[in-house]
Amino acid sequence: MNTAVVNVQLDPVDAALEVGLKDLWYPVCPSSFVKESPISLRRLGYKIALWRDQAGQVHALEDHCPHRGAPLSLGVILGDRIACPYHGVEVRRDGTVMRVPGSPGCKLEGSRPTRSFHTAESNGAIFLYNASNPALDEAPPLRLPEQLTSPEWSSFLCYTEWAGDYRYVIDNVMDPMHGAYLHKQSHTMSEGDMTADFQIRDLPEGFIFEKKGQRDVNFDWTEWMDTGIHVMRLEIPYPKTGGPGGNFTIIGSYTPITNRAAGVFHWRCRKVDGWQRDTWRFLYKNRLEERHWNVLEQDRLAVENMEPDANKREHLYQHDMGIVRLRRHLRNLATKQLDKQG
Questions:
Q1: Which of 9, 56, 164, 265 is the most exposed place for a label (fewest CB within 10 A)?
Q2: Is 245 left (phi over 0), alpha (psi -120 to 50) or beta?
């Protein structure tokens, strides 16, 4: 019997989004992941080796020795370079081969065949710039929201990994209405209408998707912004038992690990200073953090148990305007990226 080979042509726009858009910053892991020895992570369609030099600066290279492809992450740190464990080839942080011990002076020395990544470290996380140009000498500055940069704010990083496409995590956050249902037993999300009309409000660096006529009651709105990094912001009203500082703000950013795994970063923030900062941080670690993890676990179970093709079999309605808007915008960005690549 003859059998035919069927080649499935992937949508190039979807393929570009699956591994993360180029020329953007992404959080890739908590700072605590990178200690004395190199580590290897899969992120953004790459296998990446990360290490710290003697000054504590984080460096990142594709975890692939240009000689034979052995993992650089198993090698020896030599300051701003790393020596491959297989044959000792030394690769500098910018991807330049500095030394080939087994064949000094060979053409590999002085070449720059290894992809490097610009790094930044802030708010307990390590960020990589996903450049379209692998030889980019300087990345644009990492611009984070004021909740993560202003001394008037205090925050905690919550990091986890979910078994699913990172875009489903984005959809979950761009869906304020699920708070009144999935999280209705939460100490902060048990109030408000179970029905709502929504609107979209454009902002200079993104947009807000919000319930009409309801504010500071539940999970009532989500903001998406592009500052050279894609982040999402929302607020959860806090009861007085939650301590000082007004509404509880969450800043989120989500990174593809594979098409079946996502790095989920949430910074939990409040605008507090002085004794109020100390009070809130104490309350958070001793009372509130566990409750917030319980809420996040509800989201995880819902998202992880969706089928991979769930978004191909949807019947959307008015509550999903924000998801539709953001999906369309991301596809437009991916299309422009592909056009630029020619």
A1: 9
A2: left
Listing from the earlier edge strand, what are the strands of the sheet with 90-92? 76-78, 81-83, 90-92, 97-99
pLDDT tens-digit readout, 156-214: 999 999 999 999 999 999 998 888 888 887 766 667 778 888 899 999 999 999 988 88
Bridge partners of 197, per DSSP, are none
Instruction: Say which CATH architecture domain 146-334 belongs to.
Output: Alpha-Beta Complex (3.90)
CB 238 within 8 A of CB 272: no
Which single residue is written with the structure tokens 């408000």?
A: 192
Structural domain boundaries of the chain? 19-129, 146-334
Burial 228-255 (b: 16+ CB within 10 A, else e): ebbbbbbbbbbeeebbbbebbbbbbbbb
- State how far the Cα of 177 lies from the Cα of 318, in Å rounded to an integer: 11
Whose structure tokens read 């409000």? 201
Query: In this structure, what DSSP letter does residue 42 have?
Result: E
pLDDT at 6 over 50: no
Output the pLDDT for position 9. 60
How crowded is residue 111: how many other Cβ atoms within 10 Å of its Cβ? 12
pLDDT in tens, 134-163: 888 899 999 999 999 999 999 999 999 999
Q: Are 56 and 267 in contact (CB under 8 A)?
A: no
- The CATH fold assigned to 19-129 is Rieske Iron-sulfur Protein (2.102.10)
